[in-house]
Amino acid sequence: MTAINLFLAGDQGGKTPHQVGADAFLMFKMRAFTCDQLNLFPFLFPSADISWDQLPDEVVLRIFFCLPLQDLVRISVVCKRWQRLAFDESLWHSVDLEGMTHTALALQQVLRTGIRRLRCPRSFVEELHLTGRGSLQVVQMDLSSSIIPTLALEDIICRCRLLECLSLEGLQLSDTIISCLAKNTRLQELNLSGCSAFSAPVLTRMLKSCSRIQQLNLSWCTFDNNHIKSVVDNLSSRVTHLNLSGYRESLTLNDVKVLVEKCPQIKTLDLSDSTLLTADCLPVLSQLKHLLHLSLSRCYHIHLAALTDVGIMFPVLSQLDVFGLVQDSQLPSLKREMPHVSINSRPFSSIARPTPASRFVGSTSDRTMWNKKCRLRFGL
């Protein structure tokens, strides 16, 4: 029995699939199938008088495609043929491992399957042992808020070359990890919010290399002035959604000027908690002709009087977040000044996040990743 099977308990009275037999196990699982699904497989019933061994791989794979993750793993121990088919990469295109204990064992197995979309947030990985030097096929990956050794994370990221969407929110990184990210030139959405332990020079190289990034979240990282300069000087003109919140003593008006010049296509911009910014930044930001959503929450040197002209300065603006700058009693009068703008409706940023932070954790919609659910999902 493979390592991944050790923590997936069976539902056959404690017996493994090879103990109850292939036909019995599959017929047991047929009870959960709909009539329409059963009609697709008339050969599953005794009257068909056909052996599983006679079914071509394509037919067996079609049957396996209907099984949930745990059962797909269990049937892999029935025989060598089923093990080969159960881990065929066509079945493991997208996997959600959230909620699984002993994540390291599952992660090792899943990464070997040629997976393209991996959702594994809030996981605990003690150690990881990936064999060989082959590259991974992962295109989208969410490891947000996980506990994972930096060396294990390096082993994963350094095998990736095809990443398009990646979230490592809250993780301790390294210069090696950021350098390896630079090799993923197809990156379009990158969430490094709250990350730490990487230098400004390697950040510069990554931003220059990943010129296709459209959504970038670098909020609340352990950045100094050099990091901020690396970001604003090297952002791609393709960036349309940017979160640079949390840099109280680092982000300056000059940085904003460079940012506006480098990224004229920005639609969503979050500069919250930048206490060095004053009302002087508003005329500069007004040069962003496509700006739809602006967040300046807790930029305490921007006073209420300066906000009354925002509706005129930003004619296409539809959302404005200024939490901490406007008291509840002052909101009605500010809304009258800009009736077409929704004010303080988004307390959390969704920029580059695989699952918007506004969703209730544990809900069905919370299990999506960049607006799509994974086909295989671990169920408690």
From TrEMBL:
Molecular function per GO: enzyme-substrate adaptor activity
Entry's transmembrane regions: none
Major subcellular site: cytoplasm
Keyword Lipid biosynthesis: no
A Gene Ontology biological process term: positive regulation of double-strand break repair via homologous recombination
F-box domain sequence ranges: 49-95
Keyword Acetylation: yes
Stored SUPFAM superfamilies: F-box domain, RNI-like
Pathway recorded for this protein: Protein modification; protein ubiquitination
GO CC, any one term: SCF ubiquitin ligase complex
Keywords linked to the UniProt accession: Acetylation, Cytoplasm, Leucine-rich repeat, Nucleus, Phosphoprotein, Repeat, Ubl conjugation, Ubl conjugation pathway
Matching CDD domains: F-box_FBXL1 (cd22114)
Location(s), subcellular: Cytoplasm; Nucleus
Protein purpose: Substrate recognition component of a SCF (SKP1-CUL1-F-box protein) E3 ubiquitin-protein ligase complex which mediates the ubiquitination and subsequent proteasomal degradation of target proteins involved in cell cycle progression, signal transduction and transcription. Specifically recognizes phosphorylated CDKN1B/p27kip and is involved in regulation of G1/S transition. Degradation of CDKN1B/p27kip also requires CKS1. Recognizes target proteins ORC1, CDT1, RBL2, KMT2A/MLL1, CDK9, RAG2, NBN, FOXO1, UBP43, YTHDF2, and probably MYC, TOB1 and TAL1. Degradation of TAL1 also requires STUB1.
Name of the protein in question: S-phase kinase-associated protein 2
Species of the source: Haplochromis burtoni
